[in-house]
Amino acid sequence: MAFAGLRQPAQFRDVTRAHVIAWREQLVGQGLANDTIRRKLAALSSLYAYLCDRNAVLHNPVLGVKRPRSMNREGVTPALGDHQARMLLEAPAEKTLKGKRDRAILELLYATGVRVSELVQLNLRDIDFKNKLLRVFGKRRKERIVPFGDPALKALKDYLGVRETFLMNAPATKRDAQPLVLNYQGTRMTTRSVGRLIEKYIRLCAGIHDISPHALRHSFATHLLDSGADLRDIQELLGHARLSTTQIYTHVSMEKLIQVYDKAHPKA
Questions:
Q1: Is 209 a catalytic residue?
Q2: CA-closest candidate to residue 80, choices 251, 255, 268, 264
Q3: Average pLDDT of the residues in 43-63
Q4: Active site annotation includes 139
């Protein structure tokens, strides 16, 4: 508004593509990073899409304005390859109590893309075994429903068959039958303890390096996208408030993100 000299909301109708291009060039001249400029242009485009939907303006002047090239995103958690994911999921011993629990944890993380912090907060009542659905409470206690497949279902059932053994180790005063994943003391596992558990199995897998516990969440999203899933659907499953966050998780280019956005907000 300051750049275009707008004083009244109605003046948003007077903004043209030339104004947006000039604003972009001013941002470049300020030395802002390419991704920062792209984000600002996306925000302006989102505003105009909102105004168009409510017939407050006649067109979106940002559409068609060239964005600066996106910079390489260093340090983004890489996704596991299919073979690496299978190796990690099969790392826990199949017959031991701890192995059954750990397999259930890894399978559920990979099958649903939930955060480790969300996993440890799960209770038994949050699982719909019949329909293979998981009720998750994410950031700011926002609830979402996530499906999971047969491998995760089998791992869960194998673990639940021995879960009572973990629960028996808890002191009577601290015994809580609600948490899904339990430690050896029969109490709810923490985010930190599950993170250490995942790191241990990563170290046991030959050929997997520089991978964090968060990689299972990235792999869930990336593998879904590679299989043809819609980016918007992946956003809902991950519980992301912004599509740009899902873009980072799936290593999608900004051009692809813009295509998804334009598809959701077609020109009038």
A1: no
A2: 251
A3: 92
A4: yes
The predicted-structure confidence for 9-29, as pLDDT tens digits, reads as follows 899 999 999 999 999 999 999
Let me know if 214 is a catalytic residue: yes
Q: How confident is the model at residue 75 (pLDDT cuts 50, 70, 90)?
A: very low
Start-end ranges of CATH 1.10.443.10 in the chain? 82-225
Angle at Cα 64 formed by Cα 59 and Cα 67, nearest 5°? 130
**CA gap 48, 32 in Å, rounded:** 23
How far is residue 221 from each of residues 11, 158, 229, 240, 246, measured CA to CA in Å? Answer: 41, 26, 9, 12, 8
How many CA atoms lie within 13 Å of 213's alpha carbon, on the beta-carbon side?
18
What is the CATH superfamily name and number for domain 82-225?
Intergrase catalytic core (1.10.443.10)
Catalytic residue among 38, 67, 163, 240: 240
249 is catalytic: yes
pTM of the model: 0.65
Q: Which residue out of 13, 69, 83, 139 is catalytically annotated?
A: 139
Q: pLDDT tens across 215-224, in order?
A: 888 888 888 8
